[in-house]
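Please study the protein below:
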Amino acid sequence: MTADELNQGDAWACPHAAEKTVDGESLCIFHLPLHAKTDHDVMRAVDATLARAANSRDPAVQRQTQQFIGANFGAFEPLSETLAGLGAAPLNLKHATFEGPVGGIDTIDADLLLTGAVFHDRVDFAGTRFNGSADFRGARFDDWADFRDATFTDRADFRIATFTDWAYFDGATCTGALRFRGTTIEHIAQFNDLTVTERADFRDAAFEDEAYFRGADFRVATFEGARFENYTDIRAAIFRDRVTFQETAFDDVAYFPEARFCAHATFRRLTIAGLANFRGITIADGADFREAVFESEARFTDATLTDAEFDRATFAAPAEFSEATLADTSFREATFTDDATFHCQFETGADFTDAALAHGFTLTQATIEDPLTLTRADLTDARLTGVDLTEAAVEQALLSRATLFGTDLRGASLSGAVISDVRIDDETQFLGQPGDARTDSTYRLRRISAIPVCVYDPLYPGTDTDISKAKSFYHSIEELSGRSARPQLQAHCSVRRKDLERRQYKQAAKRFPIGERKLVAGFRYSQQTIARAIMLYGESPWRIILTGAVIIGVFSGLYAATSGVNVRPIPSTHSFALLSGWDSAVSAPVEILLANLYFSVVTFTTLGYGDITPAGPESQLLAGLESLLGASLIALLVFVLGRRAAR
C-alpha cells in the first residue's frame, strides 16, 4: 500500500518531512522506493525519529512521529538499541513492507534489533509484509501486539517472547516457519484464519488466557508441551500434514469442532481439564490419543476418526461418540469412569481390550461393519442395546448388570466373560452363525431343523474347536436364560452342553486302553446316549411319550409271540353295553393282537384291571419288566413336565 493510497480521503497524512519527489509525489524517506534510498540512511532516520518521540513529553508528537504506516524498508538492522525502550506512544507500522531481514537475523556478531526488545505501548504490524526473515526472539510486548493480516514470506521467530496483553495474528500468512516455542501470552491470543504453509512451532508455549485458532490453516504444526490455561478455540482449523499436541495441557475448555486433520495427529498424553469438544472433526490418517486425560466431558459427536488410538486414555467424565465414524479405532486399557456413549458407526471394528468401560457405557444402535474387540473389557452397567456384535471378541470381559436388549452376539467369543446377571430380552441372540436366516426368528418352520451353536462348538463352521470353552459358554447362557425367561434357549444350551459331554466320553472310551478308565468312559457314554434317546436329557416330554408308545407296541408283540394272555369272562352283572348294535365280531388274529395290546397298555400304566392276565411264565416275566419300565417312564414324564412348567 503506497503513501498516496493511504492519504486518499484525508484519512491519514504522513507526519514525516518529505525528502524527495518521485513521480510527482513528495515522499518522506520511509515511503521512498528502495532504489531511492539506502538501508543505512533509513535506519538513521528511524533511530532519530524514535529518539525524538521518546524525548518528547507531548503525546501527540509521540503518536505522530512513531507512525510508519505503509513505509518501505529493506534490511531492518539496528544502529542503536533505541527499540529496547520505546516511549508511551504506539509504534504504528501498518501495511509497511520489509524487504530484507528484520531483527538482524543475518547480521553476525551484532545485537538483533528486535531480539529482546521491549515494547511498552501498542505495536501495530497489521497488514505489514515481511519479505525477509523476522526475528522477535525474547521480545516483550507490554501492550497490544497487532499482526493481523501480516504476511511473512520467510521465517517468523517469536521464540521465548512475552506478550503481556492481547496478541493478534488473525488472518496472518506465513510461508516460512512460524516459531513460538517457549513463548508466553498472558492475555488473549488470536490466531484466527492464520495460514502457515511450512511449519508452525508452539512447543512449550504458555497461553495464560483465551486462545483462538478458528479457521487456522497449518501444514505441519506442533503444540508439544504447550499449556492452554483458559478457553481454547481451534474450531474449523485445518492441519494438512503432521500435527502434534503431545503432552499439551488444556486447563479449561478445548474447542475443536469441525477441525480437519489431513494426516497423522498426535495427542499423546494430552490433558484437558475442561470440556473437550471435538465435534465434527476429521482425522484422516491416524490420531494418537494414547494416555490422554479428559478430566471433563469429551465430545466426539459427528467426528470421523481413522486409525485412532485411545490406548490407556482416561475419560473421567462423560464421553460422547454419537454419530461418529470410527475406523480401526483402539481403546485398549482405556478407562471410562462415567457415561460413554458410542451411538456411532464402526467401519472396520474397534479394540476395547482391557478397557474399563463401567458406569454407563452405551453402545446403542451402532453400526459395526467389522467385529469389535472387547477382550477383558470392564463393561459393568454398560448399555449395549440393539448392537450387532457378531463375531466380536468378548473373552474374559466383565459384563455385570449390562443391558443386552436386542443385541446380536452370534459368533461372538464369550469364553470367560462374566454374564451371569446381564439383562437380555427375546431379541438377544447368542447362538448361530451370522447371516443364517434359520436362526433369525423363532416363528419359522426351518428353525425346527436348525441347530444354532456357539463359536467354540465343533458344529460351528470355520473355527477351531474348543469343547471345554463351548461347555462353559453353554452353561453360562443356560443359567442366564433361566433367569431371563428364555426357556427354549435354556433347553437348547443344556442339550448342547450334554451332547459335548457325551462326545468327550466317547473320545475318552476310544483313547484309553482296555481297563477301568475305558470301562467308566464307555458306561457314561452309554448313559448319556440312553438319556438323549429317551428324554433328550430331560428336555423333551414328547420323547418319553414316544418311547412309552414304542415299549407298549413291542411288548404287545412279545406277549403274542410267547405264552400269550388269558382273557377272563366278564360276569353279566358287571357288563354294560356301551353301544347297542355294535358288532364286535373280529377275526381271531386281530382279536389276539388287540387283547395283547390292551394288556400291554394296562401293564405299562400299572393299572391292573385283572380282566386279562399273563398266560405263562414268559408273559409274566415280560409283564413285570414292562411295569417297571412304565413306572419309570411315567415318573420321568412327570419330572420333565414339572421342570418345563417351572421355567
The longest helix spans residues 617-646.
